[in-house]
Amino acid sequence: MIKKQSKMTKTKSNKDVSGIKRPTKRSNSENGDFDLEKVKSMQVGKKSLRIDSKTVILVRPEKCNEKYAFDYKQRMNNNG
Questions:
Q1: How does residue 7 score in pLDDT terms, banded at 50, 70 and 90?
Q2: Residue 24: which of 16, 12, 14, 11 has the closest Cα?
């Protein structure tokens, strides 16, 4: 009796039978070393400010208002 092979069997390379290349895993060292505690300490005391339906930024409490959000949106529209 002959068994059918499935179409999605993997080969030894990082490609499957259909020829699509699978992504490889990356280590953090490839993106550069960073100190997670330092990044977390920079966010302490910040408030989230919604710029639009898809954008939220962290700002100091004194900048957490609608005027700053409007100015930020204007700056991003002028630069991009």
A1: low
A2: 14
Q: Which amino acid is at 51?
A: I
**How far does CA 48 lie from the centroid of its chain?**
17
**Spatial distance between the Cα atoms of 32 and 30, rounded to a whole number of angstroms:** 6
Domain boundaries in the chain? 36-79
Which tokens belong to 53?
């339906």
CA distances from 67 to 20, 28, 47, 52, 73 (A): 48, 38, 15, 13, 10
Q: Model confidence at 29, in pLDDT bands (50, 70, 90)?
A: low
Strands 47-50 and 56-59, how do they pair? antiparallel
